[in-house]
């Protein structure tokens, strides 16, 4: 069952299809069975990597790999000072980046758990206040002014209800809802056409209603958008592209220097191992081991400055990307604005004016 199918049938038909009761809701046994089949009403994300794996993942950058090779060659050539200094540089860069990204992930997780969404539903004929993630298809939900809609619902009773769908569709005007079935023949209906369905993540502006849960989690319309976002891989930032290119260029030049010196020494009749050692020493000396430290520390300072302005940056290179932006193309309603009226000043009957501070 999806919202396109649900909007075409009557309230009585949707109750029969989902094998529920329009007055009493589901019973506890049926809820448990459906939860085993459908799962919880939330979004599954990739299993979280262990901390050690996240830390090792910082070593995948070409510049870091080049420094690791440089440190290993210095160690083999018994140049312990160079090997130790390069290793320390690598540890500083990797640790700073790991700590910052791990801290940002923890803050994001804390925000997600700050206000767990709840909803009111009827089960066994009684009203229950439950977590939205515990809903299953067939649950009977009650909607009132200010409620955030916890799942995709097919409305079966309405009392002048209007819903703010701007965060989902971008439409600034409230959507007036009805219980009447929609007739569009075989044509696929759009989100705006489904006037008897309310969608997860939208808000009730006026009125109240009752609705049957038709889709939960990733099967909801909002969940489909979430799945598409999960499938998109984040592109590399300009800084990452530049650092990757620099790492490849340094690798090429280093190998070229080693090869050139070995060939010249061989033509002059010198010992090949001696010339190889000289070539490696020059190649290692040409690698700027301090560059990753400077870049990482600079980005970390930028992240800290943004944190003071209540902005959470998950990945360090994103700071540099924001600095490169010259034009922002964005939807306004629901993205840059909330489509909500806000009181900024209060004027009393005796002419007193008070400014409202919003925290």
UniProtKB/TrEMBL annotation:
<dbReference type="Pfam" id="PF00690">
    <property type="entry name" value="Cation_ATPase_N"/>
</dbReference>
<dbReference type="InterPro" id="IPR008250">
    <property type="entry name" value="ATPase_P-typ_transduc_dom_A_sf"/>
</dbReference>
<dbReference type="GO" id="GO:0005524">
    <property type="term" value="F:ATP binding"/>
</dbReference>
<dbReference type="GO" id="GO:0016887">
    <property type="term" value="F:ATP hydrolysis activity"/>
</dbReference>
<keyword id="KW-1278">Translocase</keyword>
<dbReference type="InterPro" id="IPR023214">
    <property type="entry name" value="HAD_sf"/>
</dbReference>
<dbReference type="GO" id="GO:0016020">
    <property type="term" value="C:membrane"/>
</dbReference>
<dbReference type="InterPro" id="IPR023298">
    <property type="entry name" value="ATPase_P-typ_TM_dom_sf"/>
</dbReference>
<feature type="transmembrane region" description="Helical">
    <location>
        <begin position="275"/>
        <end position="301"/>
    </location>
</feature>
<dbReference type="Pfam" id="PF00122">
    <property type="entry name" value="E1-E2_ATPase"/>
</dbReference>
<keyword id="KW-0813">Transport</keyword>
<dbReference type="InterPro" id="IPR018303">
    <property type="entry name" value="ATPase_P-typ_P_site"/>
</dbReference>
<feature type="transmembrane region" description="Helical">
    <location>
        <begin position="250"/>
        <end position="269"/>
    </location>
</feature>
<keyword id="KW-1133">Transmembrane helix</keyword>
<dbReference type="InterPro" id="IPR004014">
    <property type="entry name" value="ATPase_P-typ_cation-transptr_N"/>
</dbReference>
<dbReference type="InterPro" id="IPR023299">
    <property type="entry name" value="ATPase_P-typ_cyto_dom_N"/>
</dbReference>
<dbReference type="InterPro" id="IPR036412">
    <property type="entry name" value="HAD-like_sf"/>
</dbReference>
<keyword id="KW-0472">Membrane</keyword>
<keyword id="KW-0067">ATP-binding</keyword>
<dbReference type="InterPro" id="IPR059000">
    <property type="entry name" value="ATPase_P-type_domA"/>
</dbReference>
<dbReference type="GO" id="GO:0012505">
    <property type="term" value="C:endomembrane system"/>
</dbReference>
<keyword id="KW-0406">Ion transport</keyword>
<protein>
    <recommendedName>
        <fullName>P-type Ca(2+) transporter</fullName>
        <ecNumber>7.2.2.10</ecNumber>
    </recommendedName>
</protein>
<feature type="domain" description="Cation-transporting P-type ATPase N-terminal">
    <location>
        <begin position="5"/>
        <end position="79"/>
    </location>
</feature>
<keyword id="KW-0812">Transmembrane</keyword>
<keyword id="KW-0109">Calcium transport</keyword>
<dbReference type="InterPro" id="IPR001757">
    <property type="entry name" value="P_typ_ATPase"/>
</dbReference>
<keyword id="KW-0547">Nucleotide-binding</keyword>
<keyword id="KW-0106">Calcium</keyword>
<dbReference type="GO" id="GO:0005388">
    <property type="term" value="F:P-type calcium transporter activity"/>
</dbReference>
